[in-house]
Structure formats: C-alpha cells, structure tokens
Specification:
Blueprint lengths: L1 H5 L18 H12 L4 E6 L6 E5 L4 E4 L6 E2 L12 H9 L13 E5 L4 E7 L4 H10 L5 E7 L5 H11 L4 H9 L13 H12 L7 E4 L4 E3 L4 H12 L1
Parallel strand pairs: 6-7
Antiparallel strand pairs: 1-2, 2-3, 3-4, 5-7, 6-8, 8-9
Length: 238
C-alpha cells in the first residue's frame, strides 16, 4: 500500500513512465494508479501553485504530482507568505462530516457557561495530547463539549473508557481523570457504546486522538490550545 512505501519519506521522487500522455486530470489519475498498481485514486485536481496536481486517494491520503506523474510528493505544502499548512487545511476540508448525523447520545456531555457553541471530540483516555486538550477546554466558556471515548492505544484505554462510561457521573469522572489524573474507579454496566464508538471512529477515518469536529462538520486533527480553538469556533459562528 502507498502509505507503507511513501509515508516514511516526506518527499519521494519516483519515476513513473507515462510516455506522451497529455496533461489532464485523467492522465494524472492513470499515471498515479499505474505507479501504485491499483485503482486507488478518488479524485484529481490541478492546484494553483507549482503546476502540481492534488491527488486524493481512496484511503483518505493526499499526495501531489506533476502533469506527467514524473514524481510524487508525499508530504505537506506550506504557503511561505501566510505560513499556512495548505495540505492540512485541505485534508480537514476533505474529511468534513455531516455533524447532524453524529450519535451524540454515545458521547459524554459537558456544558461550560451557556453552552451555545458546540465541539465534538474523539479521545483516548491514555492520550497525552488529550490530557493537554482537557486542561485547555476547562479554560473555555459558553461551550458544550461532546466527548466520544475512543480507546485505540491499548487494552488499558478500553478498560478506562468502560469504567468512565459506567460511572454515576461520567462527565466528572472523565474530567477527574483527564485533567487531574484521578484514576476512574472500576464500574460495570452495558458499555457496548465503547465498541460502537470505535466502529464510528474507524468509519470516519479517525486514526489519532484527539480528533475534533466543529458544528459545521469541519475536522481538527490533533491538539490545539484554547486560543486556537476559540479562533476556529469563532470562524464557524461567522
């Protein structure tokens, strides 16, 4: 699979013979699939920079190439004027979801202030960046946070998730653990929701935690400090 051959190298130049092919999105698709050896391309679009073509793979990965697929770039493109991570922004756009379809009854609900703004998170209880995120979220006001317990790091993550879900006060138990490091006590109940969360996360191609979704369905992959989250939430409100 492409991720195994290209991902270890941020920038790979790989010769792929596509002799005499005219510059077109269809030609690029054929060239990339010839290089991969499978029908793996979801879409191809010409970019406004560097005479590159953006290639979205069916796996959700994003790569770049030229009109003749004479090289492949597997890495991030940074706009030197704005310092924006063009690739990350595009991936977030491509991975947006239908926010209204999320089964919020499978998440832990926490309300800060009037709770008018909404944020969904997928978090593993043993994720270090999730703990950093938790400490940032308690600083924010007028926000409702729905946290899907998404144990993908270890069996202990699954055990902690089940104990948190089965606690009498899920929100407090989650906060005690993720912010204060107080181990959730053992608890028993129907915790099959955790399995459903894992299946949902896989369906949404969530490969790391924390992963967040805003009310417009846009995705934030990874930790952000409170100030950056405020900006993202404000952008959605506008």
């Amino acid at each position: 699979m492409l991720s195994n051959t290209l991902r270890p190298i941020a920038l790979t130049l790989a010769l792929a013979a596509v002799g005499g092919v005219q510059a077109s999105e269809e030609a690029v698709k054929k060239g990339v699939e010839a290089f991969i050896g499978a029908q793996a391309v979801e879409s191809v679009n010409r970019t406004p920079y560097g005479e590159l073509y953006e290639v979205v793979l069916k796996s959700g990965e994003l790569i770049y190439t030229d009109a003749k697929t004479s090289f492949i770039v597997d890495g991030r493109i940074i706009d030197t004027k704005t310092r924006a991570d063009v690739t990350r922004e595009r991936l977030n756009q491509l991975s947006a979801i239908d926010f209204g379809s999320l089964p919020l009854d499978q998440a832990i609900k926490q309300v800060h202030g009037d709770g008018k703004r909404v944020l969904v998170t997928f978090e593993d209880p043993n994720c270090g960046y999730c703990k950093r995120l938790g400490k940032e979220l308690v600083k924010m006001d007028n926000l409702t946070v729905y946290t899907f317990l998404y144990p993908i790091l270890s069996p202990d993550s699954t055990e902690k998730s089940r104990n948190i879900w089965c606690a009498k006060d899920r929100a407090q138990t989650w906060r005690d653990w993720i912010v204060d490091g107080k181990t959730p006590p053992a608890a028993k109940c129907d915790s099959s929701v955790i399995d459903r969360n894992v299946a949902l996360g896989q369906q949404l191609r969530i490969n790391g935690t924390p992963t967040m979704f805003l009310a417009d369905g846009s995705r934030i992959g990874g930790y952000l400090p409170a100030a950056e989250l405020e900006k993202a939430l404000s952008a959605v409100a506008k």
